[in-house]
Design a protein that fits this description.
Rossmann fold; globular; disordered N terminus; about 260 residues; alpha/beta; about 35% helix; 10 helices
Length: about 260
Amino acid sequence: MGLYWLQGRLVYPLEQIATLKNQYLEDQTTPVSIKTDDGLTLTVRYRPAPDKTTPTIILFHGNGEDLFQRGHIALELINAGYGILLAEYRGYGGNPGKPTEPGLYADARAAYAFVSERSENVVLHGYSLGSGVAVQLASEPTHPITALILEAPFTSIVDVAARRFPLFPVRTLARDRYDSLAKIASVHAPLLIYGGTADGVIPPDQFQRLYNAARGEKRIALIEGADHLNVWTQGGREHVMQFLASLPATRAERV
C-alpha cells in the first residue's frame, strides 16, 4: 500500500529547479495571472502573437519541471513569429494548490481561456505529463483548437507505471490516470506526435499506439537515437516547424 500513498510524489515530484531560470526568456515574455474555475490564481508567462490570426502555442511542461524547462522551445517559437504561453500548474513554480489530475485540467482550461481571448488560432504543445493535459483539453468540444502537438507522449500514466513497477497492482491503485489513449480519437484538430526511439522513460511503442488510435489529419515523427529529454534538439524542432507552417492559418513563410 505504500505505493498508493507515494504515487503523488512519483507523478508530481515538484523538483526545485529555480537555478535553471532563463533571463533571456524572462526578457522575451511577461508574467501574467490566470484564474482557474476552482479559485486559484496561477502565474504563467506570455508573449503575444503579432496579430490575432497568428497562432499562439500553449506549452504544457513535464512532471519534474517548471515552465522554464520549456524555455528553449518557447524562444524558438517566438523567433519564428508565433505567440506563446508557458503554462504552469498548481503547486509548481511557486503557484498555490496541490497537483491532481482534475486540478491540472482546470489549470489548462484557464490557460486556454486567457489565450483564446487574444488569438483566433490556439495550438497546444504537451510534453510528457503535459501531453496528458493537452490531450484532455483538445478532446473537449468546448475548447476548439487549431492543432495539437505531443512530445514524448504516453498512452496513460497507468501504462507507464505498470512497466516501471510490474510487481505492483498499479492499474487498481492509481488515482490519476491521464488516459490519453481513450481520449485521442475525440481530438479532431490536426495532430503531430514526435518522440525519441531511445526514450527510456516512456516506451516509444506508446507513441505509435496513440498515433494509431487518433483520427483525422495526423503525423508521427520518431527521432532516431533521441531520448526523453532531447527530442526537440535532436530533430523534433524541424518537424514541429514544418507542421505549424502546413496549417491552413499559418501558411505564411516563417524562419
